[in-house]
Amino acid sequence: MLKISPRINEEKEDTHLLNNEMSEDSPIKDALYEKIKNIGEKQIHQLLLNGNFSELFERICEPVIHHIKSIEEYEKYGTIAESVTHYLFTEMLIPSQRKISFKNIELDIIIPNLDELQKNNHNAIVILFAKTPNNIQLKQRIEEIKKIQNVDSNIWIISKDSLNISQSTYIIEKYSFSDFLKDAQNFVKTKKMNKLNIFKT
User: Could you report the per-residue pLDDT of 119-178, keeping only the tens digit for each?
Assistant: First the structure.
């Protein structure tokens, strides 16, 4: 059983989190926060507790995907997936480092952190959110990442479309994205990175 711990000033925390993930004038940020606010933190935490990740995707991500028309499709999908991942990783207490540069290589997210990646790359996941349809650019990013994480199965690519590559891939749709969140949760549990083993709620 997962234990439940109390949260304080939850709305302020979540507003601050989303504001930090995207620029103040981001229509994606505004739309995501509106969906999260409308659903309510208690219901979101209950869905997380029950492992209903696909329903969360349906209720938070899908409406924003359909609502936002002014951003290129691949950038839109990638940005939404990355922003929601930041939010949900925080709520699920999945340890991660975000938006860092190491050896001139840009990294979207590392589980759990750069220190662990350097010590033992089998204990670290590098997550890349594809924001371009250009496969050449995407493969260049992957080759850069492989300079510091040479375990293909520990490089996770989150993309609008399916990809035929040797790394772990997830599609930005409810079932595959749900698998991504479950796999991240299981990785943390298997490696015993989350000592409290609780949801933030």
Answer: 999 999 999 999 999 999 999 999 999 999 999 999 999 999 999 999 999 999 999 999
Domain 8-200 carries which CATH code? 3.40.91
Omega of the bond prior to 112 within 30 degrees of 0, cis? yes
Phi-psi region for residue 104, left (φ > 0), alpha (ψ -120 to 50) or beta? Answer: left
Beta-bridge mates of residue 126: 110, 155
pTM: 0.84
Query: Burial, 102: exposed, middle or buried (Cβ in 10 Å; 0-12, 13-18, 19+)?
Result: middle
Please spell the DSSP secondary structure of 153-177, one letter per residue: GGEEEEESS---SSSEEEESSHHHH
Give Cβ neighbours of residue 111 (< 8 Å, ≥ 6 apart): 94, 95, 96, 124, 125, 127, 184, 187, 188, 193
Which amino acid, one-letter code, is at 97? Q
Cα Rg of the chain, angstroms: 16
Residue spans of the domains in the chain: they are: 8-200
